[in-house]
Amino acid sequence: xxxKKILLVDDDYDLIEQHKLLLEAKxxxxxxxxxxxxxxxVFEKELPDACVVDLIMEHHDSGFILxxxxxxxxxxxxxxxIILTSATYETGFRFDTSTKEEKSWIKSDGVLNKPIVxxxxxxxxxxxxxxxx
Amino acid sequence: MPSILIIDNEFPIRAxxxxxxxxxxxxxxxxxxxxxxxxxxxxxxFEFALIEQELSDHSGLKVLQAIKRVKPEIACLIIAKNPSYxxxxxxxxxxxxxxxxxxxxxxxxxxxxxxGAKHRQLFIEARNLxxxxxxxxxxxxxxxxxxxxxxxxxxxxxxxINTDGExxxxxxxxxxxxxxxxLESGEQILQKLPEPIIKQISDYLFAKKYKSxxxxxxxxxxxxxxxxxxxxxxxxxxxxxxxxxIVLVIRDITKKREVEHVKSQFVSxxxxxxxxxxxxxxxxxQILQNPEITLTESKxxxxxxxxxxxxxxxxxxxxxxxxxxRMELREKYRxxxxxxxxxxxKTTINIFELDLKxxxxxxxxxxxxxxxxxxxxxxxxxxxxxxxxxNAIKYNKPKGSINISLTKNENxxxxxxxxxxxxxxxEDQPKLFQEFFRALNKQTRAQNGTxxxxxxxxxIVESYHGKIxxxxxxxxxxxFLVKLPFVKN
Lengths: 133, 489
Fold this sequence. Notes:
heterodimer; A: 133 residues; alpha/beta; globular; B: 489 residues; Rossmann fold; Beta-Lactamase; Helix Hairpins; 4 domains; five-stranded parallel beta sheet; five-stranded antiparallel beta sheet; 14 helices; 46% helix; elongated
């Protein structure tokens, strides 16, 4: 699948604007939402080619829930959904998708650290596409 | 100097014996009277007693019995003018160590005396040993019961297990800390213990020789953090590098784990909250330098301004965190003043006058007259008022109002601040005083905040044995009530 339209979900307006600029500079179309709940509504309406989702939004696990909901849909199964967060090992939040157990309940196709590095994100997209084949 | 008591109605016995005894360093006392003899023996310290078998007023054997009953250590020998085998046996049964028929030569007597001295020494030694043994036994039983009492009093479980895996001793706390109903000394304990402990102790039970190091593990006994224990295992040493068993100490560390968990959660939250604004600033700076992205001049200025705002809020967060940690340290050392709460409120309102004007908010303040004073540190109480007031402004509606009152109740001053702001959703209310909690919605997002302001307020108020309560209706406004105890007279 050729990725053109990306859904960005983050409750930090500064980051949304930054990420939007960076992704648009690489030729992507970017749509945004500022909460997990709204994120899912936008997803259902726009059916993007990829999703980049913040973790801690209106609730601590909003990102996980959004991933889960997206991945339950037919369209969601076909596209990469990446969690982008600053809550990582260094800050004491113990999760990523490296272990089997975590993979079983975290329905994302990868976790990336903030600040965003667009090339890393594209690599995750490509990795997803490779495994889909 | 050894002394001899001679009880003999034929006394004085042969003068040469008497002379020889004195020459050899004995003190000699004599009597012909049985009663006097007994009296002398009992009230003095004689080493020896020579008793005639047939005294004129009494039987010599009766005298022997009387003396031995009170002073068993006196070496007694019976001398007999009319010796008989039966009497000799009886004398021996009554504690005489020798039986000598008369006439007695001095050589014979001194032989018997030296025999008697040994006899007496053995007797005294035996008696001392007996005494010692008795007192040792007493001590031992005292120690044993003390050992038991002490072990049952400590709240750590103590289990002693021998090399056959049998339970030798356990105290009450072992049952509690291992969540077991029943244990019995002598029983095979291994299958009753949780798996991690069995693993831990088998290294020790099946060791070839004594290990001086201990092993410590932590394990969950009742799931969901209900009971968490630390198990410490060590060898009980025996001679020549061997061991007689192991001792297990089981401590309840559930509370400690809880505290650690809360602490590490707090640290994680802090780290995350510190990282968030830094990520935003870094992102802006990256974009400003990115040759692939062209920005209008006003966008560039906007990004710089927003970076600056994020840095400012980061500063505020660091200050709040420092305040919290300082508060914990300072509670012991702070200097309390008797102050007028009314003055503090008025001063704080003045500081916020510009803010109020900017947001076009009207503020009314009413206070009772002649209020009693409070004993607090002024800075801290100003912080309470300013945090609550700044929230009331921040989360108010444009052209809203704030109503503050200060009144006296039975034991407390009531400081009440009511706003006509956005209110707090019911689901968010229980989390209001949590560190880093910020109700997230359109109205709050626009406001800077660290999520620590109300945490700080609550901590300060409670450190003065005060209380903080609130009522809120989403969309209508919020009212905070701070109760602080006042100084009487």
